[in-house]
Write a structure and sequence with these properties.
- The protein is an alpha/beta fold.
- It has a single domain, classed as Immunoglobulin-like, CATH 2.60.40.
- Helices cover 22% and strands 28% of the residues.
- The strands form two sheets. Strands 2-8-7-4-5 form a five-stranded mixed β-sheet.
- The longest helix is centred in the N-terminal third of the chain and has 15 residues.
- The structure holds zinc ion.
- The site of zinc ion has 7 residues, from loops.
Length: 148
Amino acid sequence: MRSHLATIFLVLLVFQSNALSQECAQTIEGNDLIQYNLSEIRVDPDCEEFTLTLRHTGQLPANIMGHNWVLTTSADYMPVASSAQAVGAPNYLPENDPRIIAATNMIGGGQESSVTFNISALEQSEDYTYFCSFPGHNVLMNGRLIVE
Ligand code: ZN
């Protein structure tokens, strides 16, 4: 837990001088080793909207090493991950699925995608999971989103 907080703190420091830095925004990176650089994201419930930016720091294209950032409740996470694989290329994500709270585009190395969503729709008592819906990636690329 302490190392997670230290990681988040470092990331915040890095982006402090950046114009992208706001309390209600977070950048997460995905790489060619099927990893996110954050296993936990904390969101201030006072934020009306939250903007998540996914940056693919790898070099492989989206059809081989695609990454996205999909947010669901933790209860919906595995069912949505399964139906995403059934949808297939290129997005690997069901359209207009009410279980999906937010999702970026599927991107490849060097690309970036952002999504802005309402925090007011989230419950502090609920457990939320984010993941990459590219086939097989959710096993390694997942994390918790905590509203507090
Ligand atoms: Zn991925």
